[in-house]
Design brief:
The chain is mainly beta. 9% of the residues lie in helices and 34% in strands.
């Protein structure tokens, strides 16, 4: 993904600029540096300058109507001569290629079905996708997405929880003009040249927000204004706050009945967990019990882990929320991530800076872990994700470590005391700590990961290497691809200091990410 996108004269024939859309990277010369921007047309000046030569050429021809026998081809060749000397764009592979001082990354728009960027006032370390009532398996454009996030402001009192609505998410325009004509693209509403719209409602939050997680919702979910939608935040003050964001979502789509006003009481937490004392943390995960018809939530439970290796369980009751005073204590260092089992309501997993992954059962006396893999990574284990697809892959877990490694585990082999579990797959593509990982909600073999090396990678374990296609000896393969894992489907770049990434479960293949310089939402042609 590029820091700058240049338009050519031929590109202008399409008359559709895409200032907020980027793609995977190719390498070419340039000196421009363009920031994230707030949906401004960053090519406006370039468009004006590109049109100048065209107008000049047309004017020159108009003044020589009586001299049409003049051969103008040499002039065209002269005009094209400088570009013919430029190096052809190359695929940029992180870790293999490095940008020179006068080189920038430009996207390959043909690899994206949708790609938008957006800014907020302060960086956000964490977010979660909010489930809405717009339907499942949404493939039409423009798309709409709701997310909840929290800020890391320069002072504690400026922080907020933001309930955001991303709308007008149009399909990506292809810069090369291939596959579409002007005549049949005029009425293609899904690919209009429009800026994405970002709206939000804010909740005051004391302290920076380390992590945000929204409660699960049932499969046959229909939003009900009278029912709460709980979101938990881990504050750097050592407190975990639980909010009901339902009024804020309703205010983003006001109806004659509800209106757009938000009661002041809704801006206060419905519950605050103080069991962690002043120890902050990052690990949070919800689980929920649903009604028999899978249409409503009958109860929720929340795990929170802190930097002093303690994990607390909070459950919903008729009167509110209750936090157990007895923590889970088997780790010896900071709890980095938590995941409830997708199939067993009393079982959860944790990972820690002590380099271990543990499996727990809340019914076990003494609050100790039931299974453990010591030294699962060679460094701190930052994130884990438990496969939640319905295809029978609930025994798979993926973990990401500080060393940049990604490991896939088959939990069915963890109950053998005489044999230390080993990963069924391991990847070392990232060259910096893994910051986020998540299984695809429906494709049981696919997951997405992000790293501190400014990469978002999409993987598919079902892909097998074909020696005739990758690094083969038939003379047609790109030798630079020999070190690329066959399971690596896509690399997304262009954000700085990427912190978290999630799939959008209602928009198949859509990925949302947050970084120091803002949010991206994109959908590739790869999955």
């Amino acid at each position: 993904m590029s820091a700058s996108k240049k338009r050519t004269v031929n590109d202008l024939d399409d008359s559709h600029a895409e200032p907020n859309k980027r793609g995977p990277s190719s390498k070419r010369k340039g000196n421009e540096e363009v920031g994230m921007g707030d949906f401004e047309d960053e090519w406006e000046d370039e468009v004006d300058s590109d049109e100048g030569p065209n107008e000049g050429e047309e004017a020159g021809q108009g003044n020589q109507d009586d001299a049409m026998d003049i051969d103008i081809h040499p002039a065209v060749e002269d005009a094209q001569a400088p570009s013919s000397k430029q190096a052809a764009p190359q695929t940029f592979l992180p870790g293999l290629h490095k940008l020179s001082k006068d080189e920038i990354l430009e996207p390959d728009q043909s690899a994206y079905e949708m790609l938008h960027r957006m800014n907020v006032a302060w960086p956000c370390l964490s977010f979660d996708v909010l489930r809405d009532g717009l339907g499942e398996e949404r493939r039409k454009y423009p798309a709409t997405a709701y997310v909840v996030t929290g800020t890391q402001a320069d002072t504690s009192s400026k922080n907020e929880v933001l309930v955001m609505k991303m709308s007008a998410l149009y399909k990506t325009q292809k810069d090369d003009g291939s596959g579409s004509d002007d005549d049949d693209s005029d009425d293609d509403d899904g690919a209009l040249d429009e800026d994405a719209v970002l709206e939000y409602k804010s909740i005051p939050h004391v302290g920076g927000v380390n992590r945000v997680r929204a409660q699960p919702t049932p499969l046959n979910y229909t939003p009900n204004p009278s029912l709460p939608y709980h979101v938990a935040t881990w504050a750097d003050t050592g407190k975990v706050h639980i909010y009901n964001v339902r009024p804020f979502m309703e205010a983003l789509d006001p109806s004659p009945q509800s209106g757009s006003s938000i009661p002041e009481a809704a801006k206060k937490p419905v519950h605050t967990i103080t069991s962690h004392g002043r120890s902050e943390g990052f690990a949070l995960d919800w689980a929920a019990s649903f009604s028999a018809d899978n249409t409503s939530v009958s109860g929720v439970r929340l795990l929170s882990g802190d930097i002093t290796s303690k994990i607390y369980l909070t459950t919903s009751t008729v009167s509110g929320f209750t936090t157990s005073p007895n923590p889970f204590t088997s780790h010896t260092s900071s709890i980095e991530d938590l995941q409830w089992s997708p199939s067993e309501p009393t079982v959860f997993a944790s990972c820690s800076a002590d380099q271990s992954i543990r499996i727990w059962d809340v019914r076990v006396k003494g609050r100790k872990s039931a299974m453990v893999v010591e030294n699962a990574h060679d460094a701190d284990i930052n994130v884990i994700s438990w496969n939640r697809t319905t295809g029978g892959s609930g025994y798979l877990m993926v973990s990401g470590g500080d060393e940049g490694g990604l490991k896939v585990w088959d939990l069915r082999g963890w109950n053998k005391p005489s044999q230390k579990p080993s990963p069924v797959a391991a990847f070392t593509w990232h060259k910096a700590p893994i910051t986020s990982v998540e299984w695809h909600p429906t494709e049981e073999s696919a997951f997405v990961a992000s790293g501190a090396d400014d990469q978002i990678t999409i993987w598919d374990l079902a892909v097998e290497e074909d020696p005739d296609e990758v690094g083969g000896t038939n003379g047609t393969s790109d030798p630079s691809l020999r070190h690329v894992p066959a399971q690596l489907l896509f690399v997304h770049q262009g954000q700085k200091d990427i912190k978290e990434v999630h799939w959008h479960s209602q928009i198949p293949g859509a990925v949302v990410s947050t970084a120091f310089d803002g949010f991206n939402i994109f959908k590739t042609i790869s999955i």
